[in-house]
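Morning!

As promised:
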Amino acid sequence: MSQEKIFSDILDSIVNLDEETALELANKAINDNMNLMDVIEKGYSAGIRKVGELWEEGEFFLPELMRGAQIMQNCLDLLIPHLEKGTEEISQGTVVIATIEGDIHSIGKTIVGTMLRAYGFKVFDLGADVPAEKIVDFAIEKKADVIGVSALLTTTMFGQKKIIEILKERNLLERFKVILGGAPVTTSWVNECNADGFAENAIDAVKLVKSLLNK
Amino acid sequence: MLFHDWLKDESKIVLFDGGMGTELIKRGLETGKLPDLLNIEKPDIIVEIHKSYYEAGSDMCQSNTFGSTPLNLKNHSLEDKITNIIDKALDNIQKACPPGRLVVGDIGPTGEFRPPVGKATSEEWHSSFATQTRLLEKGVALFHIETISDLEEMLSAVRAVKEISDKPIIASITYKKTKRGFFTIMGDPLEKCINALENEKVDVIGANCTLGSGDMLDLAKQAVNMTELPISVKPNAGQPRIEGTKTYYDQPIEEFVRDIQDMINLGVKIVGGCCGTTPKTINGIRKIIDKI
């Protein structure tokens, strides 16, 4: 089987949400001593990008998006220990995400985390209802590149601004990119907060993080 | 009973209420607080908001119990307060409801998704909705199950309500507009949802939230051709804009009311508003209904 054929079979397995085949092909790539970086980039990443496109086009919905990302993640878990240079080689950057204090809506944030992981970012998901100070402290500890803060309520989104204020107070504004998410967030709110951007959905969030980190 | 008479009366357009959350924010709702808890802590404000909708001309308003399912309250560590919250919610709305108008029991989503998105099971949904229905039943004329973005969760809710009560059900799903038409975020197309709700023998098929009035008008154009059942709409007043610490909905009331009028002309039976709509919006609709 040619390399190109394996790459395209991997892509199809992700798009078809066929976990069994996706994992089989990951094992085959390991056993055949293939270049696993190529396998990840040209097979699995290409597959998850296609899933993202189908979601943007309204062909795929939340269950397909989540399932695709989960399969991708399970395959990466299998492949990464076999990479010569380990995880740092494929890590696109480190992202700490959380839903802000007072807000228990976690689904959107979880989807963003799953998609970022599927695209090769190291993601720390702190969950929902997390105080701004804790998010900042954790980002410092993990040497994060990006802090992502979600708020689904117009009553809790003011907590997003608090993150920036804390970073300002501690003179850390230059060290992190801060991105916002959640239904009520708009460009004018991002400007008002002095944040680095916002995304309407998980796929846009991946694009945003990539562009902020020049990936 | 009154609601069935309204449905049977071809000339009757039923006016529902508008947004609760936006009205609470106006009155200084504390950040992150579950609005349902205010039934106990600030009953006067809740009574005042219900009253303002009835006075604006609503034929029926819904109880402030959107988040009062055990599953959702658990996330706020409030599950042990469910009886008190719902009892007080019913007291509050009954105080505001004038004779000849109706109290609707509001049932919102549990906040828990089924796999692969979340971990909820149909049994958990069912038991959660059944508990809420049992507590609401004594004080309402009908139920509005709303803002549900998964047909499976809606079906669990409808079955739970029917198990406990014979009262009418309005089943409102939240749709998003895609290039291929209207779908739930879980991928159920409009027609599939409508057919499934017809099979469950709900009394009214509805759509609410997320869509502004313009997109809801597009949805209504399709929905009226998909079912003989009455249709209910509660669109948002456009999208929120935040400035400083204030939230604004910029869509002019006249535009919203014009879209509602177009929906009524299409045959939509029950009209009202969701996020961003106010007693002024409802009063604007009242005026056009009274002219019909």
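The longest strand of chain A covers residues 94-99.

Hope this helps with the figure draft.
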